Amino acid sequence: MEMMREKETMRSMRVMFIEMIVEFIDPMQIELLSALARERAGCTTYFSVEQEHNIAEDLKRIRPHIVALSAKTGGYTTTLRYARLAKKLVPGVLIVVGGPHCTFDQTLIEYNEVDFVVAGEGDDAWVELLQNIASGKSVDDIKNVFTKNNWFSRFKNVTQIERYQHMSDRLEDLDKLPFLDREVVYTRVPHLAKFPMRSYMTSRGCPYQCTYCFEPKFNQMYRGKGHPYQRYSPERVVEELRYLIERYPTQFIKFYDDIFWIRKTVEEEPWLEQFAKLYQKEIKLPFFLLTRCNILTEDHLKLLKPAGLHSMTMSIEAGNDYVRNEVIKRHMTREDILRAFDLCYQYDVKTFANSILAIPVRPEILKQMGKSNIELDIESLDINVRSHVTFGEFTIIHPYAGCEFSEYVEENGWFSQKDDFKKLHHSYQSWSPLNCFTQEEKAQQVNLASLGTVCLAVPWSRNMIVNVLIKVKWRWVQEYIYHPLYFLAKGYLMMFKIYPMNLGLLNFWHMAVRAWKNEVNKRSPGKNLYDEPEIVTPTKPAQVANA
Fold first, then answer.
1. What percent of the chain clears pLDDT 90, i.e. is strictly above it?
2. Helices 373-386, 439-457: inter-axial angle, 10-degree rounding
3. What DSSP string describes 32-71?
4. Which residues have C-beta within 8 Å of that of residue 28, sequence separation ≥ 6?
């Protein structure tokens, strides 16, 4: 009888996920958490998107027991705004916050609006948290979960390394996870259901040391708790993709793994060969993937091209050797980059390269090189042009919690992790938050962030862009000329080169309008997003009521 009551309580629990914007890539973290909540905790799940829906009305209609939010360093103030709204409209609602920021900075638990913070890999923690809330059990000892009780009594005044002991081992058998719950998203965001590209991740983790990325610290956090790279079996990947394309119109698959293939051990079975054979036989759709220049070989292209490989991302990040290998620790040579992109050009695999602008270098190093900051950024543009990159993004670097780069800029006095995180913008093409650049340099960085993509669409414009156009200081030119040019170049290259699909004229028009609105919203996310919420500093640990 007791077990029946517990199951009935769990079935009656309503969990609501909230996002600011959904573009054309599935929010896979929400789809996984929804699947876990439904299948393993018996909850009913809902999804609301600020750009698409009236979140306040959704909260009042659904009256969720739990609101689940994701926090990014460049946008956790938005997360807290959603939490505050939910607390105001739904008395007794519990707020669970996870995401990359919480993994490295659990202090969000100190805000009045937040009841639980989930750090690290939260698959099992999320299910156990829901089950304990439903049954009225304590949640203070659940691995990866920080509550006001355990924070103020055990974790607030200890080192981050000691907090890492509160993390469970990595999930090693990904095949045990449920299929993504795409329906919870597609029913509320129908444009994504109609868009014929499906995103999927075959793996988790990355063993590399890039300083702008959280993965190195994540690996340090999980040292001794499992291999830093895990993946589904080829059979499981194909099984879920087959399930997906039978239910939704699909023309193209985007594999979104950090690194699509890594050989974990010398003795390991040939995962990539098995995948290519199964995919070519069962799925038969063109696909996109991410890898690294110093991994790619001609044998890989010979294997994957017949299976359907159409395009791939290989990040360049910086054209200058010192910046690339000493500052951001990409650990690859210029020769690695040129060889890999030349191979793709030879095999007609379209390429998408990411490059990072505004990476600061100490003045004495700049003097030794005889270069300016903007000249280093121009080197990044030039290596993209030389590499025949099909489409490239040029983003401005932002420091994030848990990244070595954040420590680098703070040590040099260019940024304060304590004071400046909340000032970061959602868009990677916004002005640099670092104080080591002049306003003129920042303006040129923003101009190059837009015009770099244009240059790849029309390479003959390189000299005009570098010598004249990036030096324009008027913001109205940046906003009303350069950014629309970037949008047009991006749209053309993405839709006709990187992810070619037959959308139909009317559908293409609707998607283009939506994409433009997305660009505007990312750059101008609202004036009220950056107000500072009240922080809780109780003398005794606060007691958190269960739903």
1. 67
2. 10
3. HHHHHHHHHH--EEEEEETTTS-HHHHHHHH--SEEEEE-
4. 180, 199, 200, 201, 256
Residue 23 has pLDDT above 50, yes or no: yes
Contact by Cβ (8 Å): 51, 191: no
List residues bridging with 34 in a β-sheet.
Answer: none
Q: What is the DSSP string of 431-474?
A: PP--TTS-HHHHHHHHHHHHHHHHHHHSGGGHHHHHHTGGG---
3-state secondary structure 353-411: EEEEECCCCCHHHHHHHCCCHHHHHHHHHHHHHHCCCCEEEEEECCCCCCCHHHHHHHH
With H, G, I as helix, E, B as strand and everything else as coil, classify residue 265.
coil
Q: Which pLDDT tens digit goes with each residue over 386-436?
A: 999 999 999 999 888 778 998 999 999 998 876 666 666 656 667 888 999
- Using one digit for the tens of pLDDT, what is the confidence trace for 50-75? 988 999 999 999 999 999 999 877 66
Which residues is 11 bridged to in the sheet? Answer: none
Q: Is the pLDDT of residue 534 over 70?
A: no
C-alpha 77/C-alpha 54 separation (Å) is 19
Cα 206 to its chain centre, rounded Å, is 14
Quick check: 140 and 167 in contact, CB under 8 A?
no
Domains, the chain, with CATH or none: 2-164 (3.40.50.280), 195-524 (3.80.30.20)
Q: Are strands 94-98 and 350-357 parallel, antiparallel or unpaired?
A: unpaired
Taking the model in full, what pTM does it have? Answer: 0.89
End-to-end CA distance of the chain: 20
Q: Of 108, 102, 104, whose CA–CA distance to 83 is shortest?
A: 108
- Label residues 138-157 b or e (16+ Cβ within 10 Å = b): ebbebbbbbbbbbbbebbbe
CA distance 366 to 521: 36
- 3-class DSSP assignment, residue 215: helix
pLDDT in tens, 92-118: 999 999 988 888 889 999 999 999 999
- The candidate with the shortest Cα–Cα distance to 270, out of 306, 308, 300, is 300
* Per-residue model confidence as pLDDT tens digits over 132-175: 999 999 999 999 999 999 999 999 998 888 888 898 999 989 99
